[in-house]
Design a protein that fits this description.
Layout: E1 7-10, E2 13-16, H1 30-42, H2 44-52, H3 56-81, H4 86-91, H5 93-116
Antiparallel strand pairs: 1-2
């Protein structure tokens, strides 16, 4: 199998036209996108290695799934632990909303610290 290399003139230099193979189309959620921004900014070598080896999309999809599972598990555990139930929701909606917002914020911080910004 032969590959034909093409070049483009940039100033006085001929540079090869390099293209990465197509990566699979996978929907990346908010957790995966956050981790992507973190990698680009703080770990550019890891980002470049994943990108050039065509593993970035699969890696981000895996991170997204792990983070989402952890987030929902934490929200459910904390709500159960603190007695935030559907009964409380029907009796005092504002208290339920305050408690659930607090729980979701804590769970998000735990996921960010444990998975996203690692």
């Amino acid at each position: 199998m032969t590959t034909k290399i093409t070049y483009t003139l940039q100033g006085d230099y001929l540079l090869p036209d390099l293209k990465l193979p197509e990566q699979p189309k996978v929907e990346i959620g908010i957790w995966g996108k956050r981790h992507l921004r973190y990698l680009e900014k703080h770990h550019p070598i890891i980002y470049t290695n994943l990108l050039t080896s065509c593993k970035l999309t699969a890696y981000l999809a895996d991170i997204d799934k792990q983070a989402e599972d952890m987030f929902f598990r934490l929200v459910n555990q904390l709500a159960k632990q603190e007695g935030v139930t559907e009964q409380l929701k029907s009796e005092n909606q504002m208290l339920w909303v305050r408690k659930m917002n607090n729980i979701r914020n804590r769970a998000e911080e735990i996921v960010n610290d444990g998975i996203i910004y690692q």
